[in-house]
Structure formats: C-alpha cells, structure tokens
Amino acid sequence: MQTLDLKKIIETYSLDTREVAEELFPKNKYPKLALDRVLKGESFLDTTQLSLLSQMTGVPIQFLFSNGAWKVTSPNKGTVVFESEGYRAELDLDKWITKVYHKETLFHEQLLHKGAIPLSDYLEQINLLITKNKEKWIKQKSSYRSM
After folding, report:
1. What Rg do the C-alpha atoms of the chain give, in angstroms?
2. Which of 12, 31, 65, 96 could bond to 21 as cystine, CB 3.0-4.6 Å?
C-alpha cells in the first residue's frame, strides 16, 4: 500500500491545517482531531479526501505520493519547483516563465505556454526539453572524442 506524507504536503504547499481539516472532514464534529489522527498514522485518507487534497494543492493525486517521477515543492508562494533525476524546473507563477536546470546549470528559460494547461502537459513539455538537452550533451561529448 502506498502512503503519503500529509504533514510534508501541508508544509510544502503552505496549507493552513485548520482549513485542511475542515475541507477533508466536513461532516466530522472535530475535524482537527480527525486530521491529527491521519498525521499520526492512526488513520488514512479515502479517495474522496485525496481528490480534495489534490484540488487544494493544485497537484495531481499521483504527485502527492513521495514516489512520483517528479518531486514537487513550493519554496515560496510565487514558485513551484519540479525535480527529477538531477533536473530541476522552476515555474514562476506570476510571469509563467520556466527555468530548467541540469544540476546547477541553467539550460532553458522561457515562457512555455500561455494560459492554463494541465500539469501533465506541462511536465511533458519539460520532459521534451530534458530529452533534447540530453541528446545535445551526447552529441557534444561524441564530437570531443572524434577530435
């Protein structure tokens, strides 16, 4: 069974625990106590609650689990960071500019899209940029060997 670190999700997305409790446990007389039980591992969220949590964070359910292909963080209110296998994509939520890094080297910075798109489409665009970067790196490496 897969589990998720709800405490980490609340911290990462700067969620208010009172609001999370009320949203996830609307029919419970003591929603904060119910949330505390989940945080302590004494209880689990159901699929409806996972869906609500996904809506609250703006992140698809699969990315709430720690073993997703992309680790998603939000170091501040205006930025979302996606990390995977030595790559990092930083999305500026005000300007919609994306910066993509390999390790600490910036190799791409531009507006990837105008307006809202599904997160899966956005990550597909990031994956394409990473694939192109890997291909470019391999070509450069092979050209140095032939010299």
Report:
1. 19
2. 31
pTM above 0.70, yes or no: no
| Cα-to-chain-centroid distance, residue 2 | 17
> What are residue 106's DSSP bridge partners?
101
Beta pairing, strands 71-76 & 79-84? antiparallel
CA nearest to 9, candidates 47, 51, 66: 66
| Residue 125 CB-density burial (10 A; 0-12 exposed, 13-18 middle, 19+ buried) | middle
At residue 87, what are phi and psi to the nearest 5 degrees? -110, 150
What region, left, alpha or beta, does residue 118 occupy, with left being phi > 0 and alpha being psi -120 to 50 degrees? beta
Take residue 59 and report the two structure tokens written for it.
């992140």
Angle, helix 17-24 to helix 47-57, in steps of 10 degrees: 140
